[in-house]
């Protein structure tokens, strides 16, 4: 195909929240700006007013439209009806590229894309796990079932797209070395996100920002905050920003521990607005792939303490002093208390700013993704599958 051909690109994912939604918005804006036609298909029952505002901001870049259907998180009979509706929506759009994000989005685009190919469509099918089913283990029947499905769907995949080397390694360990092509493309940030964000006049000591669910570690943050106060020998302050079904449980825990005047809860807001609310950022996740919040915090010049999980060491540097063991509230508390007592210690543990900016930019991410799309449509990745497999074995 001609290298300059305008592509019709459709992104499909379930939940329009968090890192996946951010990743898709950045790709949509960049590729639309390059002259391609872009659309989004996602769940209609997830998200709130904050996500509605994000949709409004991205609509001008969606020439293929925004299509929302009810897509449940768990696998069940409802998926059959949803898949049929999704097929009709996608068929009418006639995309060149179907890019699925997360387990549900990945399954839909590969099944539907393959069905469209039977009708002589040349659509290319891509899948970015973004963690997804990789969070499960082989020790559970559900994990084994999901891994078997992922393996089966490889035969209908033009390329896997990993956002971290960690994610690529875990995929190989749990599902197997990919039998299709695969590519590592890091998440990226916009130029303006590298402008520093200072703390406001009433800034708290620490900020937690993210989904309110145990996987992201809000409970560990609360426990570590309480212990950090004991280590520091004085009251501290913190802000927790985010939404999620478990948010009332965390608020109840804060109230029970008598921390309600020192830890304040806020609804989800733009990351840079949240960064101004505190002097330090804490990411206490139990599992991650390549979290945007870590990228955004470092780009904004915020001293950050994070857990040594997923792709975070690829951002911070393996062995960084700012990394602690996941789920270890004591280790996190020690680091939090030290960041207050020795500010220069944490600042010195942050990545080199110029190198960081070079590696994690939206421009690089969008260019590499578009190159992959074009290679797949021209048939080039057929030979790349063997190279991908050898690099992971």
UniProtKB/TrEMBL annotation:
Residues 17-190 form the Glycosyltransferase subfamily 4-like N-terminal domain. Keywords: Transferase. This is Glycosyltransferase involved in cell wall biosynthesis. Residues 192-343 form the Glycosyl transferase family domain. PANTHER family: GLYCOSYLTRANSFERASE, GLYCOSYLTRANSFERASE EPSF-RELATED. GO terms for molecular function: glycosyltransferase activity.
